[in-house]
Amino acid sequence: xxxxxxxxxxxxxxxxxxxxxxxxxxxxxxxxxxxxxxxxxxxxxxxxxxxxxxxxxxxxxxx
Length: 63
Description:
73% helix, elongated
């Protein structure tokens, strides 16, 4: 499953960043630090997963 998220295109992160409030990467990094700083999860990866979720939920909603 890790390889699947690592191969996501960068535009998903860009979409999630545009739709998120300012300094979201700093706040995400702080929350990841509080969670024990999982090595596989970076703020960029979290934003990419949020972008996938946005399109996934939007697609389900469209159906």
